[in-house]
Amino acid sequence: MTTLASGTDTLTRDALTVLQPGFTGTTAPDWLLRRLGEGLASVGLFGRNIASPGQLAALTAQLRAERDDVLVAIDEEGGDVTRLEVRNGSSFPGNHALGAVDDVELTHQVAHELGRRLASCGVNLNWAPSADVNSDPRNPVIGVRSFGADTELTARHTAAYVTGLQSAGVAACTKHFPGHGDTAVDSHHALPRIDVSADVLAERELAPFRAAIAAGTRAVMSAHILVPALDPDRPATLSRRILTGLLRDELGYDGLIVTDGMEMRAIAGTYGIERGSVLAIAAGADAICVGGGLADDATVLRLRDALVAAVRAGELPEERLAEAADRVRALARWAGTADSPAESTHGTEIGLHAARRALTVTAAPGLGSPHTFEPLTEPPYVAALTPVANIAVGDETPWGVAAELIHLLPGTVTGSFSAGDGPETEAGENAGRAALQAAGPRRIVAVVRDEHRHPWMASALDALLAARPDTIVVEMGVPQAAPRGALHIATHGAARVCGRAAAEVITGVPGV
């Protein structure tokens, strides 16, 4: 165990220990190394910190040279939310695809392989899996990050993911407690409210978390959501009724509780990150995640000093802060003694295998069947109908089928179309006409994400299909809208391997 710098009192060390900050750059800044020496025990990594597996391994080694038991956390769900492969797209299809296959052994294998890759780079805590039941199809932030809308399916795959990830020596952090699926608001922007009864919550939202706890999840992440049936006054992250009364006392969970990012507007815009962090620890949280957008020494010092001041003012019991810090250290000890993952027994292509199995391929009525579809042999025009990316996914990660079609059919041409300004129907018609004009005589492959949530997207498809009924449609979000097009391929996710699997069907060239 690394010896902490002398002169740092216990209270200050504990306040640093409960923070999980981020930082900028691909090497650790001096301020971060200095805080590790003073008691900081966790660091959060994001896409901005990662250039390659080798660079990431060097970065985590740099951190451990300063503190050998540091928890290195990452938001690596696979699928749409990837940090390891933020520039190219993930090698793993994501939760919704795994739920569509509904093979718990496959989910375990995918999570193990993802964990093995994280562990090989020195990462030992993953803010995953999402255990949210996607019960509201309008959900703008969960969607394909969920295993599905079925409670029992979500529960069994959550458990399989937890055991698979932790069998690779990486702690799972099951999120977003008590369940972020039944909301049409993104907590990155505002405070969502879930108005259902306590009985519905217990039967639907809480079931996957009970499964995760039974599977031994080492961490649970709280959600910035208001659930009046549980606490009418405070969001879950700041609610003692929810974090201590429900999660600890009723569900019997004794591991680490991590907050979702405290700089998200649901907390920062209402309470401020300093006050929010004090309230979260008082409510029962053990670690404060901050750094997705705030990633500097000044933020760390502000939060440290706010916690220390709250203890000294009698607003935060010192024993509660000490208990939280002890849980952080306990997880660090587990991570330090976890077995190194063995080489994969199911192949590094398990993600592509899962993406292929997740495809649902249908044809429009009167246009034959998928079995009579003639694969394309000439380069098509790919029209990507592109929604605004949510913050959890980010807009820097490529998605779609264009890159894979270009590889399989050189000469493929692509274009991206969005809602633009004006009424959604008019915007969609304009996008559809623009795509038709750009495509010329080429066969069109229209790529959508969550058509059911975007009226402009549906209107654009209307225009495309009216003029060109032989258009192939690839849905890379939740396939809630009715299938249409000469061929309709639902990938259940927009990861790189999902695009690869769809491109193989379109060209009839599998396994390249």
Explain what this protein looks like in three dimensions.
The structure is a single chain. This protein has 512 residues and is an alpha/beta fold. It is 40% helix and 11% strand. The protein has 18 helices and 14 strands. Strands 2-3-4-5-6-7 form a six-stranded parallel β-sheet. A six-stranded mixed β-sheet has the order 9-14-13-12-10-11, with helices on one face. Helix 5 packs parallel to helix 6, helix 11 (273-283) packs across helix 12 and helix 14 (350-358) packs across helix 18. The longest helix is centred in the middle third of the chain and has 20 residues, at 318-337. The N and C termini lie far apart (48 Å). Residues 1-7 have low confidence and may be disordered.
Give a quick precis of the structure.
The protein is α/β, with parallel strands linked by helices and 512 residues long. It has 18 helices and 14 strands. The chain has helices at 10-17, 30-38, 53-66, 95-101, 104-120, 151-166, 198-205, 207-214, 240-250, 265-268, 273-283, 297-312, 318-337, 350-358, 402-408, 424-439, 455-467, 496-507, and strands spanning 19-21, 42-45, 71-74, 125-126, 171-177, 219-222, 256-258, 288-290, 360-362, 381-385, 413-417, 444-448, 472-475, 487-490.
Keywords:
single chain; 512 residues; alpha/beta; six-stranded parallel β-sheet; six-stranded mixed β-sheet; 14 strands; disordered N terminus
What are the SSEs and their pairings?
Elements: H1 10-17, E1 19-21, H2 30-38, E2 42-45, H3 53-66, E3 71-74, H4 95-101, H5 104-120, E4 125-126, H6 151-166, E5 171-177, H7 198-205, H8 207-214, E6 219-222, H9 240-250, E7 256-258, H10 265-268, H11 273-283, E8 288-290, H12 297-312, H13 318-337, H14 350-358, E9 360-362, E10 381-385, H15 402-408, E11 413-417, H16 424-439, E12 444-448, H17 455-467, E13 472-475, E14 487-490, H18 496-507
Parallel strand pairs: 1-8, 2-3, 3-4, 4-5, 5-6, 6-7, 10-11, 10-12, 12-13, 13-14
Antiparallel strand pairs: 9-14
